[in-house]
Sequence to fold (126 residues):
Amino acid sequence: QVQPVESGEGLVQPGGPLKLPCQAPQSPFSTYTVAWFPQAPGRQRGLVAVITSSGSTNYAVFVKGRFTISRDNVKNTVYLQMNSLEPEDTAVYYCAAKAVSRLMYRWYDAREFTSWGQGTQVTVSS
Fold:
């Protein structure tokens, strides 16, 4: 079991970049599948990016070409690099992790993930 911690909260102008780290320094985070789930007020969390322990990645269609997920196993950190941000990207971004790769639902389903961070606010506004 891990306890991910997100950071990188910030205000960014439309079109700008922002990089979010998710870290679990006391856990074997490199063995976990890790994903990012934004949640806007009144809306459900939706997966935008996921990375496995082997480094395989997948993305929601609407962020492909804009967002990149990566991991640094030495630092026990997963990153979400967001480019070309738009106001619609404004949300609390949650980092989530799971140890078991076998799917119970779908790869993008929040129910697949068992460990969740507290979230970090990303606001895209002029």
Notes: The mean pLDDT is 94. The longest strand covers residues 91-98. The radius of gyration is 13 Å. Residues 38 and 93 are 4 Å apart (CA to CA).
